[in-house]
Structure formats: C-alpha cells, structure tokens
Amino acid sequence: xxxxxxxxxxxxxxxxxxxxxxxxxxxxxxxxxxxxxxxxxxxxxxxxxxxxxxxxxxxxxxxxxxxxxxxxxxxxxxxxxxxxxxxxxxxxxxxxxxxxxxxxxxxxxxxxxxxxxxxxxxxxxxxxxxxxxxxxxxxxxxxxxxxxxxxxxxxxxxxxxxxxxxxxxxxxxxxxxxxxxxxxxxxxxxxxxxxxxxxxxxxxxxxxxxxxxxxxxxxxxxxxxxxxxxxxxxxxxxxxxxxxxxxxxxxxxxxxxxxxxxxxxxxxxxxxxxxxxxxxxxxx
Amino acid sequence: xxxxxxxxxxxxxxxxxxxxxxxxxxxxxxxxxxxxxxxxxxxxxxxxxxxxxxxxxxxxxxxxxxxxxxxxxxxxxxxxxxxxxxxxxxxxxxxxxxxxxxxxxxxxxxxxxxxxxxxxxxxxxxxxxxxxxxxxxxxxxxxxxxxxxxxxxxxxxxxxxxxxxxxxxxxxxxxxxxxxxxxxxxxxxxxxxxxxxxxxxxxxxxxxxxxxxxxxxxxxxxxxxxxxxxxxxxxxxxxxxxxxxxxxxxxxxxxxxxxxxxxxxxxxxxxxxxxxxxxxxxxxxxxxxxxxxxxxxxxxxxxxxxxxxxxxxxxxxxxxx
Lengths: 284, 321
What we know:
The complex is a heterodimer of chains A (284) and B (321).
Chain A: H1 10-39, H2 71-106, H3 109-124, H4 127-137, H5 142-169, H6 172-179, H7 184-220, H8 232-239, H9 247-275, H10 280-283
Chain B: H1 2-29, H2 34-38, H3 45-55, H4 61-73, H5 87-122, H6 127-141, H7 144-158, H8 175-209, H9 212-219, H10 224-254, H11 256-261, H12 267-276, H13 280-308
Helix pairs in contact in B: 1-13, 5-6, 5-8, 5-10, 6-8, 7-8, 8-10, 9-10, 10-13, 12-13
C-alpha cells in the first residue's frame, strides 16, 4: 500500500483512464483514416464515374457527391486535412504563445500591462475572424488557414503561459535558482517549463480540437484549402443544398469531425487527470 | 470605488487608442491594393492612380491615420471605398440584426447553462448529471455551421415551421417576421455557447462544493440551499462572469459563420465582405465598433465581479480567469 493514492476511490480512477482510452480510440480512428489516405484511396479524387448523388452502397461506401465523386474518398482526404490543420496550428500556437507568454511573465510594470491588455483584446476576437483577415491577406490555401489559426490561438496560449509562469516565478525554488546564479534562459528551461508542462499540454490538446473546428469553419466560408482538396468544411458547404435529398454527404463529414474533436477533448481531460494530480480530487 | 472607476476608464481609453493604432497599421500591412477593387481589370496606371487619389490611399500613412482619427472623434466612421456609402449608418443597420441575435442567444445560453452546469456538478454521480456533462462534451465538438445546417433541415425544410434563412427586407417593420427569421440562428448560437458555458459553471460549482467555507456553513446549521445561496452563488459567479464577458464579446463577431449559414445581413457578414473587397473603411469601422463593444463588455464584467467579490477591489483589471 505504500506510495499509493489513498484518497481517491479506485472506481473513479479507473473511469478516468476510460476517458483517455475512449479519446485515443476515437482520435486514433480518424488518424488511421488520415494515414491510410496517404497511401491508398478507394477512388481517384477527381473520378466522377459514380453517377451523381448516388446513395450508399454499390461500390461506394457512402455514395457520391453532386459531381459523382466518391464520398468516402473525400472523407478520407478530409481526415488528413483535419489532422494536418490541427497539428500545424497547435505547433505554431505553441511556439509563438510560449515565447510571448514567458516574455510577458518576465517583463514587469507597464510592458506586462500593455502586453496583457493587448492579449485580452486579441482573445476577445474570435479565432475565425483573425484567421479571415490573415487568409484574405494571403491566399486561400491550407497553409494560410493553418498559419492564421495558429497565430490567433497563440494569444490564448500566451495568456495561459503568462499566468502559469508568474505563479511558478513566485516559488521558493526559483528564488533559490536565481540566488545561486542560474541565468534566466536556463531557469526557464529547467525549472519553469517542466512545471507548467502538464497544464500546457492539456490546453494544447484542447486547442487542437478548436483548430480543427476553425479550419472547418474557414473552409465552409470558402477560405480554406482550395477545391481539389476535400476539406470536411467544404464538403459540408457543398452538401448543404442537397441535405434532405442526399443526407450522407451532409452527415458523414460532420460526424467524423465531431468524433475527432470529442476524441481529442477526451484525451485532454484524461491527460489532465493523469498529469496533474492536484486536480484529481477536485474534478472527479 | 470612484478612484477605481477613473483608473479603469482611463485604462479603457488607452486600450481603445492602442487598438485603433494596431488596427490601422495591421490593415495597411495587408498586401493587395484597394484601388484594384475599384478599377476594372486592365485599367491604365493613370486610372489606378486616380482611384487611389479619390479614396486617399496615395497619401502618407500618418496623414491617413490622423484623418481617420479626426473622423472618429466627430462620430464619423468614414466612407466605403467600394459602395461610396457612409460606413456608420450601414454598421447601425447591421447592428439591428446582430445585437438582438447575440443578446437573445446569450440570454438563452445562460438560462440553459447555469441550471445545467449546476446540476452536472451537484448531481455528478447520477445518470442525468453524467448525461449533462456528456451532452456538453458533444456540444463543444459540433461545428456551429453544421448544427445550423441540421436545424435548418429538420425545422425549416422538413417541418416547415420556420424560414430556412434570410431576414425581412424592411427589417423590424414586421416584428413577427423578423423574430421568426432569428429563432433558428439564436438557438444555434445558444446551444453551442451553452455547451462551453456548462463546463465553466460545472467546474465553478465543483470548486464551491468542495470548499471549506461551504462545509463550515453546513456544520453551523445552514441548509444546503441556504449555504449555496449565501456563500456558493457569490463565489461561483466570479469566474463564470469573466467567461460570460468573453463569450458575449466573441459572439458579437463570431456570429459571422451563423450569419452565413442563415444568410443574415449582420455585422459579421459585413466584415467578411469588407475583407474580401479590401474595403479599409468598412473593415476599420466594423472592427473599431466591435473593439469598443469588447472593451465595454470587459469593463462591465470587471465592475460586476468587483461588486460581487470584495477581494478583487485592490486590483485594476480582471478577476480569476
């Protein structure tokens, strides 16, 4: 019994790992679709031999779209784009956000005030709007969308990092590191970042889901990856007019999108409970 | 309190000034020439220069900036490059759609999320507590435009109860018709918004439920309801109000996708068109008005938090976000 957590009932702890497992299964399923789509697709992306708006079955698992293209092929390509959009945005958001947040936390006085006021305003503007501005300035490609979403999200990450770093900087072990002559970049790398890591990873996982949603929103508005690429958002936009007559095209991409986002959010919840023991009892 | 108000208002004014500079500079950094939108393809350099001169984009940037600020100071949002119409009245007309849409969705979301979030926390070991948490998980994962598509398909196309989109040409002259066209958009935004709010209310309630002061109050003989009303509500509402402020502000502009699904002539769609046409005065005007709204909402949220929680009164801005 030594070293075990005596305060959390085992039943609750096991439910938490269930969260993580279900999340991994859901997100893993989409990731698998995305990975397979890199090597193999049931049909060519521009193969229109299927007949327009065919129902599911008959060689087409989900049927075809209004141009006769296979829906399952598009859904697979869409999963690749969604995963790319999520990963790319989160990488950018993490790189920019962590840097800005650490700098803001170290800055004192009016620089800190100005930076946090600026971040607050930036955060109040929806990710999608900032992204629209950036996409309009560049061109509508997946790269622009990812860059835009990543930059917009970096404000959220920066604010979180600033708060977390400030909290860590007030700790005695930081004072100890400082008085023993450790340089501040070194303090950040070996004392600050390891301590904020658990909370940060959870937030970045949540940002992944939000990035996938934002990319779908941009593509829905025609500001995402251009036409030959089947993004889920654009598939949904194209299928909107035929929702009642051919529901498969308007349902399948949406369902997969929801599954991916739920999966990643569940992973975030599971990670929070596993990585951050302080929240265990409170959030159970 | 009076001293705080002065300082907080000064902070608001400085933020607004800062935001307008950032807005102006960022917009001019965008590639693309607004004059291109005004002239036809293959226009001669002279025609383009004339177009630039007409809209004033050939003048030095500091001059353009002071001109814009001067206009703002006299309550003028400028004139659209593309339509040559003043931006102010257009923004006001769009607000007639966006403000009722946002406020109604916000109120509905709060009405759903507060009881649901409280129940999800308080009854978390029952099946319906778990179900509520699950539904909110589902809600934050649904793209708002897809929810809109589904609602249109079910309630407009199949059942035929409500219009599938659009807004009456003559606005609020026929209130019943205007309200009917806003019902589905309001429900769409409210459902998505309440899904994320439920999580905040739930976590704030959990914090209160596990707190020492609640246990002490119960030990001193308060009933559960009495202790929650007297101690819990006040403590739980502080973090929730700061989230509410952010949600309200972002919905004001975040409505752009919903406006697109339902073909509503709101502020978001005005901005989208402005961005596509490089129409600086329109973009500047919409973003300035919304920045102002964002700042004022933040101000009000801070003020309310401060009234509720005396512990915050030493600080200039923000609660425990």
